[in-house]
Amino acid sequence: MIDYRTLADYNLNSVLKTFLIVFCLVQPIWAAPSAESTFVLENGMRVILSQIPERQAVAILSYYTTGAIEDIAEHTGFSFFYGSMHGLFTTENQKPYYSFRRLTENGGIMHYNIAHDDCYFLQIAAEEELNNALWSESENIFLLSPSESELKQLKDYTAEIARQFGPQNILYNARLWMFNQLFLARPGYANPLVGNPDQIRSWTYDDILKQIKRFKDPAQVILVVTGAFDPSQAQDNIQKYFEGMGTPRSPPQSLSAPRANQSSSIRKRSWWRDGLETQHLQIGYRLPGLITSSQSTEADHFVSRAIFKFLISPGLSHLDHMINRVNQLQVTISAEITENIHENALFISFAAKDRNSLEKAKFILTSELQALSNRKISLLQMKSIKAALKNEFYMKMADLGKRAIEIAKSFHMFGLINPTEQFERNIQRLDQNSIMRVIKKYFTEDRQVQLYVYKKE
Amino acid sequence: MYIKKNNFITGLLCLTTCILMAPSPVLAAQNKGPLTIQLSTGLIVSMTPRSGWSFIQAELIIPMQDAEQNPVISRLTGENLFDRSLLDNDTSLTNNLIRLGADCHVDYRPDEIRLSVNFPSDQIRDFASLLQDIFSYKSFSLKRFDYSRLNFFHRFTSEPNWIFQIARALAYNQFFPGHTSAKGPIQTQHLEQLNLSYIRSFYSRIFKPERSILILNGDLNPHTTYGLIEMTLNSLRKPETSYPPRITPFPHPKENKRIICLEAEQFNQLNAFLFNVIPPVHELEHFQERILHTHLFAIPHGRLFALTGALKIRPINFYTQIYHHSNLSMMSTEFTYTQQLGKILDLMINERRRILQRPFDEREYLVASNILLGQMKVNTASFDMSIDQRLHPIVSNKPVPFLENPGQLLRTNNFTRTIQYLGRKSTRQTTYPTYSPELIIITGNAAILNRFKETLNPSLSDQIETIALKLE
Q: Looking at CA atoms only, how far is residue B344 from chain A in angstroms?
């Protein structure tokens, strides 16, 4: 006999109990895959947690949204100096700081980088060392107060580095001159990162302590933790070590202001210098920033990087193929593309024994760019560019340290904690037409600067 | 009946919950370890799925054969195949490499050629075509060969680690005379001995799927990847005879010279390398050696760092690499940023000797073990974890428990066992009686080496042998 009852008649209590037990058993597996989460501490510091359980290590990145562009005139190179303060531990005869000793005692590594728009400090430690690493990171950000003698040693160290990039380094100065002509909207991007050796030596102890305050503002720090860790425990420890720390700073003293007259650039110049073994030609193109007023221009920088990959990157190296193999020249090609927020440049450098080869290389570059602006690149070339960009990006995302940097940059610039979304959108939009369009728009004579650096006969 | 109905609904709810909450079968598959399969062409493929990756890291290992003793031939053959800068027109092989993003590197080791390629996971089909091209290459040309030979040293000396490669070749040559890896450093006369027919013949003997091993790591489904590669390589000729083992074990290393100065005009700075042969990675003794190495070379906790600080002969830095083989490992330590190399070498030799006579204390053991264990864990942060480690279980047919689970090392090893190992080593009673040799190789041109020799302790300078190389 069938017992007809409505649902309300069933023993819902036992059904729900079973459901809850099963849910609790299954839920941790469901929650395990790497998911990013974010929260903001009361002092304004932003935190991103990205869990990758299968690793046995964890990366802790403090990403500062301030960089060398904010160095005031008398303290050019201070950001680099501050960065070296974290790296001080490895300089000669410098007694290692406890945090560094602690990290290396457990097999950990440390790395830092200073750029114009941002800077970061990265620790990679064994998973069980997360708590110690967070503690020492908090100390480094908020409580760093080196002694006068330590700062003197550091001044000597950074002044020596700045001296190596001084007037005698012809090609470094040529590059700076090029950037001065190329960065018109934000001339601060042309400032040398390392500063001037005499100026560094003249900084007083009080000056330095005052400048350090700029880096103690928690609102400009994005803390990224990625790797194997328990998110709730990590969150508790972050609150414990970072909450209530730091002092908000006053507005930046010298944000590099846009130049009034943006068309005053010199387009071509020649230098004759002693001490060179080969002749050099540097060609630069002015490119849009990573963040611009329109979405279409933002994507243009991504396309410019695709063009850079196609022309220069090892393996694809279309330019090398055309110059050295097809035309049988012997020209050394090097290049870089900047990754600034407001304004960028693609910078190609040719070196050869004779001037004639430089002229030929320039002609080939101009002709290739002309051809690329008028006809579509082949499907094979397009596929290879996309593959090269994907390899580069996905490999970064598979490496804990590089992944943390990508996440922080993406969050800072676009408010996205998952940089893959933005990358995949850009890669989908990238096609033969967008390459033609960007070459036509940016690789033009009025956006180009040339500098010949000849060997003095 | 009531109970039956209640059970039915509870079961249904449970089932629905499991379906909704449980990870997908694909994810489940991704958590499994490596799958190793031999294809019908004889190629061994080992695949490790990695969740969260959107690319595949591939490494094709092509071991050398005993008969071949010209050290240039493997590099020149590889360059004629893979180096696009030598080609007028792209071949099907280079086109496939370009299609994959051209993110490739070839390491010409003394005992094998290793091709590493990274590519987006949706291009596995292009990678399979690349493999087919590698094993059925027919596009050798005299023009390209002549060009590759003409510019050989220019390309070789442009590589960032070319001096290390020369030192490494010499170390294998000194430790394992007669073995396939003992060809010695590349020199001009080796290049002069070669012509295109040698290259063709070398290619047809060595580049065979039945002699090669492929390691794939990343966003892949082992079953479909296996099927795809099997299908693509199916057109290749199947091996008719049974081949000798792909990887021949190394003989016991010879210990005759302590310090060799390698002199060549092109070495315009002083470099120093320490090479040691240590037990294989599947043995506990391998890690005991590495604990000892960490105790000496770690920065800033190592003994040498402390001593060089006390003697004010810094700056100093060390860069260590380990090459795992089936029955031993080769460890190399490069001295970088050293200005007072003579004094530092003297110090290092004395310390290595001293530690066998008066081993370190328990505290020092704990510090060194902790650093090593931490480093092994920190290495998992990088995607590029040593392929050597993953290859080892395949070639030696032995698991590497301490690499898979570094924590087990501290549970298995302890201070007493390490001291016992050092005791056996000092009295040459280890399981591996001859796995203790070390060789120091110093590179520089004549003037640099003469200046260096003047700074050396006389007891050391007596042990030096100088070998001159011609590289142009």
A: 15
